[in-house]
Design brief:
The chain has helices at residues 17-20, 23-26, 40-43, 46-56, 73-86, 97-111, 183-201, 208-229, 236-256, 260-272, 276-294, 299-307, 313-324, 332-343, 357-368, and strands spanning 10-13, 31-36, 60-64, 90-95, 131-135, 147-152, 157-162, 170-173. By secondary structure, the protein is α/β, with parallel strands linked by helices. It folds into two domains: 10-178, Rossmann fold; 183-369, Dehydroquinate synthase-like - alpha domain (Dehydroquinate synthase-like, alpha domain, Up-down Bundle). The strands form two sheets. A six-stranded parallel β-sheet has the order 1-8-5-4-2-3, sandwiched between helices. A two-stranded antiparallel ribbon has the order 6-7. It starts with 9 loop residues before the first strand and ends with a helix. Bound molecules: NADP nicotinamide-adenine-dinucleotide phosphate (NAP) and zinc ion. NADP nicotinamide-adenine-dinucleotide phosphate binds next to helix 3, helix 6, strand 6, helix 7 and helix 11.
Length: 370
Amino acid sequence: MDFKYYLPTRIVFGLDCIIKEKELLQELGGSALVVTGQSSARLSGALDDICKALDSLKISYDVFAGVNPNPTFDNIRTGATRARETRPDMIIGVGGGSPLDAAKAIALLATNQVDVEDLFKGGLSRPALPVVAIPTTAGSGSEVTPYSILTYDALQTKKSISYPSIMPRVAFLDARYTMTLPRAVTADTACDAFSHALEGYLSSRANPVSDTLAREAMQVLGKRLGQLAAGMEPDLEAREDLLYAALLAGMVIAQTATSVIHALGYPLTYFKGIPHGRANAYLIEEFLHFNREHLRNWPKLDDILDFMQVNSIAELGDMLRNLTGQPPKVTEEELARYAHLASQAKNVTNCPMVPSEVELLVMLRNALLA
Ligand code: NAP
Ligand code: ZN
């Protein structure tokens, strides 16, 4: 065995964990910028809890709200200007993957006098401000990854940056915050977590620790995605399971990164506005067929079906379609463009069998036109 595993995030999981463990914030300084999306940070109760904790610790703070789903360069520039003006000691992201990713990019720009576009070139002279992550969705796993994924208009897709210093120092996970999630966002984000576990498990960068985490994530998701697909409304216990699985899956991709499913999903989000997790869900079945075709006797593929409590890749596809509904209408020309964009994404190369642009096109066609 020969592997590395790096996870500098202090994970605190449980009901009321912010209030119970608030002293952890004190280690990071005396002032904060809290970064949120539009309204869910407040609606979920997470913003209230973190503000109470900061008040009681006498940590001063400012709130930067309004980060869009799939954060834009403008979101990041506005947040960075605020951080440069108020000079906080830490950045606290509250929300789904979008505000958490925005918090990370803002934390880098607070210490480095460069533009958001420069973050993609690497070579920054200073580490980011410490980041605290408080997820209100159970999906992205951004609370434990070194990535921030931004909408890159000049390239007409989404693209990630990766820096060790944006791995959150502390992640507070309280499933109560996910109780307000509408059914569609619950399903989309759970599919994102499944996609992380699956892509990580089938990655050429997988290691024994990431595999252990991926197996556990998929076993939990197998039960809970099945219940969601059958129409069950998740209670707090189910929500805790989903948040736990999303966390584990985030720990997987923090080591392995994502692969083909994410590379193909980004153009669907960029051009068609499909939510991130749902875009992934449309592509999972075809990605598994592709692997089955090229790596015939790979036991890991059978493992996935066992974990997900299904008998075939097609049955898994039916379950995912129950969760996401039908894919959007697309033309051949659009698919060719998406396949080309995906073929240029770095994460495509994280597969034991790297698909060509033509094979990517076939996957898209089968997933979206069949
Ligand atoms: P999201 O884009 O953060 O949020 C989606 C929607 O859900 C927003 O409208 C948001 O509203 C709402 N929402 C969030 N929490 C809610 C709650 N508790 N109750 C009701 N509504 C709520 O969703 P996400 O799927 O978590 O994140 C997706 C983003 O994460 C994508 O940009 C993706 O690329 C990225 N991602 C990052 C990583 C990583 O490692 N960094 C990994 C995977 C995905 P508000 O606007 O009001 O908050
Ligand atoms: Zn994802």
